[in-house]
Design goal:
Layout (H helix, E strand, L loop, with lengths): L3 E6 L9 H18 L3 E4 L13 H11 L4 E8 L5 H14 L4 E6 L6 H9 L11 H12 L22 E6 L2 H10 L2 E5 L7 H11 L10 E9 L3 H19 L9 H6 L4 H10 L3 E4 L1 H15 L3 E5 L5 H14 L19
Helix pairs in contact: 1-2, 1-12, 2-3, 3-5, 6-7, 8-10, 11-12
């Protein structure tokens, strides 16, 4: 199967575990993905939520880079309207200098949490407002900075440091035609978030390709991000998915909590309202055995006309999540690597 697979990780906090456990599990998963032959490993940004705990993808990327050898590492994504685009460019230039040729900067405009948290992150609790309307200008600013140009709204040139021989890959992450159109206009890569919006993505990706204007990238390059739970048996996969079903019900009802454990999910009996939510949301997931999951993923990739899928897996246990990625790697014939442990400093540097 000529398909590249990548990982999108949210550092989920499972009931009975701490955020520190979740971050340790993210690091373990990144090392496994590196060894299994995955293309890239992306960390997502969220704020003010018990179920996910990575508030600083750039810090997690730095840690993962020191513990891996080959895999590309990056954000999936940085919620850009929170920040100065120049500061984000500096952070990812720093990461690129530390890990040349391995850094991805994926950006999005969603707040990644509730509006109270968004206000706090934006303005330090002093009345700041999350403003997604500035997002297109910010992405254009990143394109200029990484291309060695001074953005038009700067009063004078500013040097982007540290200078590096390579630059990060710049990705637009989106679940609507807005993101695809902006990526096409600016000439950058685009990933459609099928795990957020299960309908209409094929048309968004097609429009992205047709409207793409060569710029930062010479030609359109796209991927689709999908939610997957893969297990040795269909019964096990469905059991693991029950925890996700329950969490989605909780989110729809405004309940802030961790990812339910397997025991909690198994004991839960949904009422009619909850069952309707579960049925509605299942279109965003691919659940089953390796053969079943691979068949559905390949069909989805064909409909999007992409050769890379970014896989998000949340399950009722960290072991089950890791096993899901192992089974996918086997199903798609990824080439496992035997790279030695990564060094924190270059050879000869101590």
């Amino acid at each position: 199967m000529n398909m590249r697979l990548s990982v999108l990780d949210q550092s989920p906090v499972i009931e009975g575990h701490t955020p520190a456990d979740a971050l340790a599990a993210t690091l373990e998963l990144a090392q496994a993905a590196d060894a299994l032959g995955y293309e890239r490993f992306w960390c997502a940004e969220h704020h003010g939520m018990q179920a996910v705990c990575d508030t600083s993808p750039e810090l997690m990327i730095a840690r993962i880079g020191a513990a891996t050898r080959r895999i590309r590492i990056g954000s999936g994504g940085v919620m850009l309207p929170y920040y100065s685009a120049f500061k984000v460019a500096e952070q990812f230039s720093m990461l690129e200098a530390l890990y040349p040729g391995r850094i991805d900067l994926g950006v999005g405009r969603a707040p990644g949490g509730g509006m109270a948290a968004a206000s706090a992150v934006s303005g330090n609790g002093l009345g700041g407002r999350y403003d997604p309307d500035i997002f297109p200008m910010q992405v254009a600013e990143l394109v200029d900075l990484f291309s060695g140009r001074t953005p038009q709204h700067y009063s004078r040139p500013v040097r982007l440091q540290p200078a590096a021989a390579t630059r990060p890959q710049l990705w637009m992450l989106g679940s609507s035609d807005f993101g695809g159109a902006l990526a096409a206009q600016l000439g950058i890569r685009f990933t459609f978030a099928h795990f957020i919006s299960a309908h209409g993505g094929e048309h968004v990706m097609r429009a992205f390709r047709e409207e793409f204007e060569p710029g930062f990238e010479p030609a359109p390059q796209g991927a689709v991000a999908v939610f997957v739970i893969c297990a040795d048996t269909q019964a096990e996969a469905r059991q693991l998915a029950a925890a996700v079903d329950l969490r989605r019900v909780q989110m729809a009802l405004g309940v802030d909590g961790p990812i339910p454990s397997l025991a909690t999910a198994t004991a839960y009996v949904p009422d009619a309202r909850a069952q309707a939510i579960i049925e509605r949301e299942r279109a965003r997931s691919i659940v089953g055995t390796p053969a079943q999951v691979a068949e559905r993923m390949l069909a989805l990739a064909e409909s999007f006309a992409v050769d890379e899928m970014v896989v998000l897996t949340v399950a009722a246990s960290y072991a089950a999540r890791l096993r899901s990625y192992e089974l996918l790697a086997q199903a798609f014939g990824l080439q496992a690597t035997a790279a030695p442990p990564a060094r924190a400093v270059p050879a000869g540097g101590g």
